Amino acid sequence: MVPIVVDASAGGQVFRTAIGLSALLQKPVEIRHIRQKRPRPGLQAQHLTALKTLQQICNSRVKGLFKESPEVVFFPQKPVSTRLVVNIGTAGSIGLLLQSVFFPSLVSENRLRVIGGTNVPFAPPIEFVQNVLLPELKAMNCRFEVALNCHGFFPKGKGRVSFVSKKTKLPLKSICFTELGTLESIECFSVCASLPREVAERQSKIAEKILQELSTDFVSHVSCKENSFSCGSSIVLLARFSTGRVLSASAIGKKGFPAEEVGKKAAYHLLKKIRAERAVDEHLADQLVPFMALAKGPSTIETAVLSEHTLNNIKVCEQLLGVKFEVSGEKNNSSEIFVEGMGFKEASK
Q: Which of 89, 188, 250, 332 could form a disulfide with 236 if both were Cys (CB 3.0 to 4.6 A apart)?
């Protein structure tokens, strides 16, 4: 079978979705110009480890399997159930790596222990994966579980996460996330490692103070592991609504950036999302797009920000799955995203 050619110059999101869908569909892909527009182009540790993981799940042949490779040709076989220890080796995001693993895990039962970054810049924190993404995917029939064993921060990483999948009843259910509902509570996960506990406490307290104007319950989970494999802090805020929708915001601590500033950054970001009154935020939207395309029937979401990641995911899903999205709204503005899903069941191969 001739590989489908995918241009991944826009970034890692295209690469992750392309190899994941390729593994699920058992269709080879040739991915060119990988992350060409990024400061450090080609495959980095997180992308390379994701590819190696799918190679094992799908018993695949791969060309271009090396760091900073600008091009990859991936020939997947039928996904099989696996038990793997996956070590990114850096603070590369575990959440981003799992984005690729999710797709073949719809049809195979996998158990992974993943070592890497759990709360790192420019990536979804593990609390987002657990509390925002997975519940929405569960509503579509996905059977994924993610357990946090140990946080890992930049630059050392060394966080530990367990991932378990069970075969999904296919086709996936369609979704309609256009109503936000009324705010019911705010949940806060404030954590630190190899730092005094007061760092996490200060992050949480300032966020609670700023969000008092919402007049809703504020539930805080503060945790600290003073002697950890890595050093850092993060805060993740979740706004829970009557419809079941969850809006999230997060911030990462860094040297010279006071704990109060970390909490403020996340709190004001969450306020902005709540005031936009859209059911799906930009970080969830791009991750829902491929599952909407795979589901049976019409799916619609409304997002406050139409991000580049979402547009890139739409493009690669249209190319690999043969669906056509309808998008109203301009980039970086509010938008409604609609697709008639393909109703994926099982690859015939």
A: 250
Structure tokens at 339: 């697709």
Q: The CATH number of the domain where 299 resides is what?
A: 3.65.10.20
Asked if residue 349 belongs to a domain, the reply is no
Kind of pairing, strands 296-303 and 176-177? Answer: parallel
Q: Are residues 54 and 157 in the same domain?
A: yes
Residues 234-256: tens digit of each pLDDT: 999 999 999 999 999 999 999 99
User: Does the annotation mark 47 as catalytic?
Assistant: no
Q: Is residue 250, in this structure, part of any structural domain at all?
A: yes
Tens digit of pLDDT for each residue in 98-123?
999 999 999 999 999 999 999 999 99
| Cα 24 from chain centre | 18
> Residues 81, 102: one domain?
yes
The contacts of residue 309 (CB under 8 Å, 6+ apart) are 11, 13, 282, 286
- What totals of helices (H) and strands (E) does the chain contain, helices first? 9, 16
Q: Give percent of the chain with pLDDT exceeding 90.
A: 95
Residue 6 β-bridge partners: 31
122 alpha carbon, distance to own chain's centre? 11
Residue 93 belongs to some domain of the structure: yes
60 and 145 co-located in one domain? yes
Whole-angstrom Cα distance, residue 163 to residue 102?
10
Domain that holds residue 210: 179-272
